[in-house]
Fold this sequence. Notes:
The structure is a single chain. Helix content is 40%, strand content 17%. It is α/β, with parallel strands linked by helices and 401 residues long. A hairpin with a 2-residue loop joins strand 1 (23-27) and strand 2 (30-33). Helix 3 (56-66) runs antiparallel to helix 12, helix 4 (79-91) runs parallel beside helix 12 and helix 14 (349-358) packs across helix 15. The radius of gyration is 21 Å and the shape is globular. The model has no long low-confidence stretch (mean pLDDT 98). It is found in: Cytoplasm. Keywords: Amino-acid biosynthesis, Aminotransferase, Arginine biosynthesis, Cytoplasm, Pyridoxal phosphate, Transferase.
Amino acid sequence: MQVTRATFNDVMVPNYNPAEMVPVRGEGSRVWDQEGKEYIDFAGGIAVNVLGHCHPELVKVLQEQGAKLWHLSNVFTNEPAMRLAKKLCDATFADKVYFANSGAEANEAALKLARRYAIDHHSEAKDQIISFKQGFHGRTFFTVTVGGQPAYSDGFGPKPGAVEHCEFNNLEMLAEMMSERTCAVMMEPLQGEGGIIVPDPAFVKGVRELCDKHNALLIFDEVQSGVGRTGHLYAYMGVNVVPDILTTAKSLGGGFPIGAMLTTNDIANSLKPGTHGSTYGGNPLACAVAERALDVVNQPEVLEGVLKKEALYREILGKINDKYHVFSEVRGQGMLLGCALNEEYAGRARDFMVAANSEGLMCLVAGMNVIRFAPSLVIPDEDIVEGLARFERAVAAVVAG
Ligand SMILES: *Cc1c(COP(=O)(O)O)cnc(C)c1O
């Protein structure tokens, strides 16, 4: 059957507006479309393809597990799920893991757990969840309500209650809002969708202190910042602030859908049998792929490589900006970088993304003012150099009008 981009409009619910080209094949950080045109991939499936496309180790484990056992449900456990959980616990603060299929589901579990923990240990009245403006936590109704962009949560009728939003990086405001009624604070240790915003380390430490003071749980949403993206296995390790609950997804499966919630023994005890669940969560195929992705990413050479590649991006982007004066700053960490547009180009991030696509480069935006790069952590330096040469041509085209 012949399908083209026009087919999308015929048969897909119109909640997305994908690019005109239709990718059909990928290898490393290169992708080819239906016409055979080649692209360099700085989008990484939105911070998912942590080892690029069709990494040989991931293809191998997928084929091996695919010939062995695909699915069981949670009526039975399985070896890949237990191995992955063990490795996640060994590598982080966590003692216990809950598996889901996406970031939103991992966050949904985290929020339900925080509420249940407060009821178990304090009272029903301790129900306030505080999160941050511009934050993003997924699209289920609870998680999108906790997210800090009302445009995403409005228009669906009554929202889950007791959710309040604070300004990011504003510790005084948070201190004002918190009390013994606060159940949990949920934050991204590096805001992704909201515009690649790295919080002040003192702010993150302050949030931890306020949570301790008011017996509130600190939930780090590391769905975008996790699994090596910042050059640390998880971003919390870079700021030295340990959360009570951490969620991880996107890069965790390297392109295979999986999400996970990590926590301590004490907190995990509030999710007793029957309190929460998922048919696919802990699926052996997903866990086998994620286990291998984690093995590859969690090596000093790979994590150090992320910082070297970040330096290369920043050096070349600086030169592009010296020539064209389009960015006010390049921000972010590791392989999660944002080029914030200056006043003159305000609101035009999408124009740059579309121009880049024409030049053979896939990239992302984060809001209307930031061009976002979230490539593979092992993208070859040649692909960074060639991709940024294409990006420079796109910048020149936008500047020329
Ligand atoms: C992408 C993202 C989510 C949602 O993940 P899905 O897999 O799309 O449900 C949640 N939190 C953050 C920080 C994200 O970047």
